[in-house]
Amino acid sequence: MYRKHLLFFILLPFTVFSQAQDNPLQKQEQDSLMFIRQKARDYLHACQQYHRNGQYELYKKYADSLLEFSRSYELREAELQALMNQAIYYNNINTYEKALRIYHEALDKCGDIPNRDIARTVILVNVGNVYNNIGAYDKAIAVMDTVIQRTRMYKTPPLTAIAAYNGLSTGYSKLGDEKESLRYLEKVRKMGLEIGDTTVVVTALNNMSSSYMTLGDYGKSLDLSNNSLNLQQNIVYSKQKTTALLNIGMSYLRSGKPKQAITYLNQAGEASVQLHIVEVEMKTHNYLAEAYEATGDFESSYKEQKRYSDMVKSNMKEKGDAMTLDLKKENSDQQKIIQHGKRELAFLRAQKGKIILGCFLGFLLLSGILFFYYRKRKSLESENARLIRDFRDIHNRHDALKTQMEEIAGRIGHENAANDNNSPSYKNSSLSAADRQLLMHKLTDYMEQEKPYLDFDLNHSQLASRLGMSSNHLSEVLSLCFKQNFYNFINIYRVDEACRLMKAPEYRNLKIIAIAYESGFKSKSSFNRIFKNHTGYTPTAYKEKFCS
After folding, report:
1. What's the pLDDT score for residue 195?
2. What percent of the chain stands above pLDDT 90?
3. The pTM is what?
4. Three-class SS of residue 151?
5. How many CA atoms lie within 13 A of 73 on its CB side?
6. How far is the C-alpha of 515 from the C-alpha of 498, rounded, in Å?
7. pLDDT (0 to 100) of residue 338
8. What CA–CA distance (Å, rounded) separates 432 from 192?
9. Residue 17 has pLDDT above 50, yes or no
10. Inter-residue contact 72 to 13 (CB < 8 Å)
11. Contact 158, 184 (CB under 8 A)
């Protein structure tokens, strides 16, 4: 479920530039300085206006201009504001690695300006939103908690605390705690009413709608989204209005009204393209595929599903790049600490004639620090390599399995066509051969992307429901396209997953029963039996022969 982050344009609470006032200036120089300040303010206000109006490409253009202008005149505070605006733009279009890189640069530059503690707090809340976007929810919650503490220590803009509470609600929602999420959203809504900010209020209503939808209360979700839409009647396009349209479409879809859902989902899709809101556009394609299938328009459903799949792959790569960058940044910070420790050690050694005992103790302490951070660095490098390797392995493995399944389906389809030997039980089916092909592709795409087979309680009707098709149609696709029943089909994927886990270095020490559970099997006995039927080996024998 898409949740809207409070990535508002927040003007940092400090003067545009102050360092140029340190020296006495002549009248001409003072006039020149006033002109420079006013020019920078004009860029800032233009950014603010275009962001508020949803004109994000113009917003980015003025942010770039402000950055170039501020660097030309060495205006540190304006440069920091420009960097923040650029990062907000890239986060908004799902270019997470670039957004995170710019935020790290901005954090490094905070030490050069007055009110650096306030500036750092404002930047951190946006970093927390990036962590939510790339799936690092525990990390996002930790950052947002830090931001809340800092807002109580420093006089930050009200939107900073509001954005942090909204980020906490997103993190807890993604971790499955919707009640905790709703508690924070109620705070956001009340704070928005207190400061008279409609954007804050409608964002809270949209996210509350998403939470109630997850909880299955579609009526409540629809009411909240309609309230949000009513507050935005005079707005043509905005992130908040686009999210409300998406939630209304989802509420109708989950309530069994796909035709009404299509109307709102198409509006949300058009708006998301206009505003370059990639996350909403991606979700819209996914839900439109489900809605079109529910109305029997399988061709449109397949097209929407294909668009969704392409966007998911691109988005997954972007998230992986951002996570890699974050790990490298942590590693770099630890290297700086180690270098600082080495300089301290050199100083102590220079003074060893006076403080021999202090040097000895300092050496022991530094050795401990070096050892700790050496292990930490190695752990981070290993984790980074594992993330990249796992992403590639999973992607390649699923592509291979998907291709294999579709080749089997294609071969069976040719045999059926040649022999005219379709099962009698499906002679009166409402599905044409073309329909079955569309549903078959949808099934293999879903198995590749969502991995439902890892749920050991998965049954035939549940899978059909998740795919938005009837149980009879699913049975027909499995029988005629793959010549498999439901459980045989699911077990092909589970056995493939077990083989992957046994070959992966990080899983080689797991016991066979753990491999079984991780692959979606409910018991060791069924795992042993099914694995041998598919591979010709028991799990233990397979592991000894192919995974040593």
Report:
1. 92
2. 38
3. 0.52
4. helix
5. 22
6. 6
7. 59
8. 53
9. no
10. no
11. no
DSSP letter at 537 equals: S
The span from the CA of 32 to the CA of 16, in Å, is: 15
Residue length, the chain? 548
Do 204 and 185 meet the contact criterion of CB atoms below 8 Å apart? yes
Contact, 449 vs 309, CB < 8 A? yes
The Cβ-side half-sphere exposure at 7, using a 13 Å CA radius, reads 31
Per-residue 3-state assignment (H helix, E strand, C coil) for 337-391: HHHHHHHHHHHHHHCCCCCHHHHHHHHHHHHHHHHHHHHHHHHHHHHHHHHHHHH
218, 254 Cβ separation under 8 angstroms: yes
Burial of 273 (0-12, 13-18, 19+ CB in 10 A): middle
- Please state, in angstroms and rounded to a whole number, the distance separating the CA atoms of residues 452 and 463: 8
Distances (CA, A) of 218 to 35, 184, 221, 247, 253: 55, 20, 5, 10, 9
Read off the pLDDT of residues 53-107 as tens digits, 9 standing for 90 and up.
778 788 889 989 988 988 888 888 888 888 888 888 888 787 888 888 998 888 8
Instruction: Give pLDDT, residue 353.
Output: 57
Helix (H, G, I), strand (E, B) or coil at 22: coil
Q: What are phi and psi of 177, to 5 degrees?
A: -105, 80
Q: Which residue has the tokens 């045999």?
A: 415
Tokens of 12: 């940092």
DSSP 16: S
Task: Quickly list H helices, 276-355.
Answer: 278-294, 298-350
Highest mean pLDDT among 123-137, 393-407, 461-475: 461-475
Going from the C-alpha of 414 to that of each of 195, 407, 410, 419, 420, the distances in angstroms are 67, 11, 6, 8, 10
Count CA atoms within 13 Å of residue 325 on its CB side.
21
Give the integer Cα–Cα distance in Å for 515 and 180: 33
Question: Does the structure show a pLDDT above 80 at 35?
Answer: yes
Specify the DSSP class assigned to residue 426: G
- DSSP per-residue letters across 430-496: S--HHHHHHHHHHHHHHHHHH-GGG-TT--HHHHHHHHTS-HHHHHHHIIIIIS--HHHHHHHHHHH
Cβ proximity of 165 and 188 under 8 Å: yes
Residue 309: the pLDDT is 82
For tokens 């939630």, the residue is 247
Q: How far from each other are the two terminal CA atoms of the chain, in whole angstroms?
A: 42
With CA atoms as reference, report the closest residue to 11 among 104, 119, 116, 89.
Answer: 119
CA distance 428 to 426: 5
Q: In terms of C-beta density within 10 A (0-12 exposed, 13-18 middle, 19 or more buried), how is residue 371 classed?
A: exposed
The per-residue pLDDT for range 251-265, each reduced to its tens digit, is 999 999 999 999 999
Q: Are 141 and 107 in contact (CB under 8 A)?
A: no
Helix residue ranges per DSSP H, 175-277: 178-195, 198-214, 218-230, 239-254, 258-275
Helix residue spans in 25-75 (DSSP H): 27-52, 56-72
Structure confidence at residue 19 as a pLDDT band (50, 70, 90) = very low
